[in-house]
Amino acid sequence: MGVSHEFGPWQFDVDTGDLTRAGDVVRLEPTVARVLDYMLSNQDRLITRAELIEQVWRNRVVSDDSINRAISILRQSLDREQRDAYIKTLPRRGYRASFPPPQRAPTPPPAAAAEETVPETPPLELVTETATAAPVRTQSARWAAYGAVTAVLIAFLLTYPWRNTDSPAPAAATLAVLPFQELGGEQEPKYLGEGISDWIILRLADVNELQVTARTSSFSLRNRGMTIEQIAEALNVSHVLEGSVQKQGDRLRVIARLIRGDSEREVWSNSFDRNIDELFSIQDDIAHAIVASLKGTLLRGEKDEYEPTAASFQLTLRGRQAYNRHTQAGYLDATQYLEEAVAADPEYALPHLLLAKTLRASIHADSVVHIYPSGEREAILASITQHLDTALRLDPILSEAHALRAQILQQRGEEAAAEDAFQQALEFGPNNPEVLADYARWLSERQRNEESLVVLRRAAAQDPRNNRLQQLLGRVLWGMGLAEQAVAVIEENLRIHPDAANNLSLLARWHMQLGEPGQSMLYYMAERDLDPDNPHRQWAVCLMHWQLWDNATALRCIDHLLADHPDYYEARKWQAELQGDHARATEIVLEQIERYPDVQYYKLQLLSLYTAQARWQAIIALARETFPELTERPPKINDINIWAARELATALARTGQDQAMRELSQASLQHIDRTRKLQRGGYTTGIDDLVFLALLGRTEEAFERLEAAIDQRFSFYSQVILLAPEPIDTLRGPRLEALIDRQRAFLESERRWYQQQLAQRMP
Which fold has domain 4-97? Predict the structure, then answer.
């Protein structure tokens, strides 16, 4: 019988990691579950980190980040409002855990008790990736071989007795399919191996009461030197399928092994030797035999599937691998492979979809790198729409296609249609991690962070090592003000994905916002070094020099960047601005707005330039047109439009519209008080309150807040103090200059610190 604990409103099953409260279930990761089990058994005393490493991690090498993350997840899961309600940190010593006695429900009357039954544990939701309903077309003997060989594997997996009928039903069986290893000297088998693994994941996703880990997570563990037990623990699965594939001429050999994760005991293994030409004729017989063996009970929505040509399939695999690198070079490679895949088989929906996603990602990443020739951008956008429409025509239930359509509708401002498209995507792929990630991001962008967090947790259960999912999770936690948990999630994600530059970008921004600009610079430099040809990464370092009040170095950095990327928008604009040429900077921004009229960011930059030139009426017109919510009563302030609110309030004051200025300034101060220190993803600078308080004539409070911000090392975009001529000029004098000198001294010390760190790392 498994071990369980009851405390407060919670029931905790140690074996499954399930935390249950009032019918709601949270499944903890295995390591986090072991931490909770140990703390429940050792509460009301000091528990040191060394003790946790010995008892929970079994003396493995563990970073502080891993322990912090486990504790953060427990605190978040048990009590989001009072995070130290159950586990308190004892500084420089460890932790003390205290758990209240269980909350017992009243004993029911005898009649009711006699009728009481224990509800059956519902099966975990399954990943569903349905394929096109188009008729089967068998054009390639080689593709038939892949399907036939894989079908024999699946026949066993579908009929394997995952449950012991003599014992109580446990939680749903879980399986990770590793990429089959390539053997032999030919280059092709690595695509055969991935293809077979992908096909198994796709087919088993429809098996009742079997949860299959998504490919992103299972494939991420390749070549890590991990044991099967370690892989099973990392992915939280009960079984692992591994194998190999070898092609010699027209012969194909596939070896597969199904292994228990807890004991590494081999449950089943087999070797398949087939002649490709012979397999073509028997493919349908094998597929029918599988369905017959299942007696129609284990597959949901069984139907004929479209079979692409072997050439198109392999090119699609190559394209997807290139796309998943998420770099400009990767997008270029993916575009070439996917265009060839479409040409090889125009009726195959997947390369159309992936090509639309690739083109969209490429144009988004490249939009501020160079200027597109007239009509080129519009042609790319038209191509995206064409390939997406084709994918939906060929496979109307392709969930990721509906999710992409939702994002395009959102960009066009068709919010209702976008939400409808997301609902269709969720209907066809309710557990597709990519669809869930897209929907979660859409929710978070609408400040629906609680809903977004639920969706992300659900997606992460299917794909726990997905880099993009973990980054979204970190962003949402940060947006909810849960900084410690957000940082822990991204630090752990960086450990798993050390080559993912965007993790470094998030940590850089957050450490800057938390008052550690020197550490932020180190993260930005590491990000640049991971992707040195990407001008965005180079630009982040240049901007960080400016954040550290080192304008001379920032200008040299910008000059170097423009030498390699002369059309890079941000560098051109900032170069003019730092040289004091506001007119030229304004021309550059106006050109960018003409190319991208729907991007608010460029209009925010224009507002700041108008302020530097005292163009008050232009500010009022642009701010009211772009952010009409600022004119409502009361004004609605968020993380993005507060930048515009600062410039608009200044313009209103300078044009004698005092009442409107006061309402806008007071609403903005209320927003700052709610989001101070973290400011989530927006543009609150940390000294915005100085501007609004100065406008309101609350001079003493303005100085007190600026001094408090400097005491707290809050430096995000603090150079605005030096740049803004209005209304900070009204505060000029010895007191303000003394505070500016303090901030300058702090940032100089941070520059020395990061430079010392770099020097120590040099050989």
Answer: Arc Repressor Mutant, subunit A (1.10.10)
Enclosing H/E stretch for 20? strand 18-21
Q: Is the dihedral of CA 475, 476, 481, 483 positive or negative?
A: negative
Cβ neighbours of residue 605 under 8 Å, at least 6 residues apart? Answer: 573, 589
Q: Check if the beta carbon of residue 610 is closer than 8 Å to that of residue 622.
A: yes
For the segment 372-389, the average pLDDT, to the nearest whole number, is 82
- Residue with token string 């999630």: 489
In this prediction, residue 550 has a pLDDT band, given cuts at 50, 70 and 90, of: very high
Please tell me the predicted confidence (pLDDT) of residue 75.
Answer: 83
CB 388 within 8 A of CB 353: yes
Please give the Cα distance from 425 to 441 (Å, whole number): 14
Q: Is the pLDDT of residue 448 over 80?
A: yes
Max distance between CA atoms of the chain, in angstroms, equals 90
**CATH number, span 141-306:** 3.40.50.10070
Residue 445 phi/psi, 5-degree rounding, is -65, -20
Query: What is the C-alpha separation between 554 and 560, in angstroms, rounded?
Result: 10
Average pLDDT over residues 587-595: 93
Tell me the C-alpha distance between 273 and 152, whole Å: 12
Token pair 């087939």: residue: 274
For the structural domain made of 580-759, what CATH number should be given? 1.25.40
Are the CB atoms for 506 and 257 separated by under 8 Å? no
Q: Which of 375, 331, 328 is nearest to 354 (CA)?
A: 331
> What tens digit of pLDDT does each residue of 613-652 get?
999 999 999 999 999 999 998 999 987 898 899 999 999 9
The pairing of beta strand 181-183 with beta strand 239-248: parallel
Query: Where does the chain hold its CATH 1.25.40 domain(s)?
Result: 307-394, 580-759
Residue type present at position 116: E
pLDDT in tens, 41-67: 999 899 988 888 888 877 665 556 568
* Cross-sheet strand order for the sheet of 4-7: 4-7, 10-13, 18-21, 24-27
Sign of CA dihedral 689, 692, 698, 703: positive
CATH code 3.40.50.10070 region(s) in the chain: 141-306
Residues 578 and 550 sit within 8 Å (Cβ to Cβ)? no
SS3 state of residue 524: helix
- 279-292 b/e (C-beta count within 10 Å ≥ 16 → b): bbeebeebbeebee
The per-residue pLDDT for range 78-97, each reduced to its tens digit, is 886 676 789 988 766 788 99
Those residues whose C-beta lies under 8 Å from the C-beta of residue 479, and which sit 6 or more positions away, are 444, 447, 449, 680, 681
Q: Report helix, strand or coil for 145.
A: helix
Q: Is the bond preceding 635 in cis, omega lying within 30 degrees of 0?
A: no
**Which residues face 8 on adjacent strands?**
102
For residue 634, say if its preceding peptide bond is cis, omega within 30 degrees of 0: yes
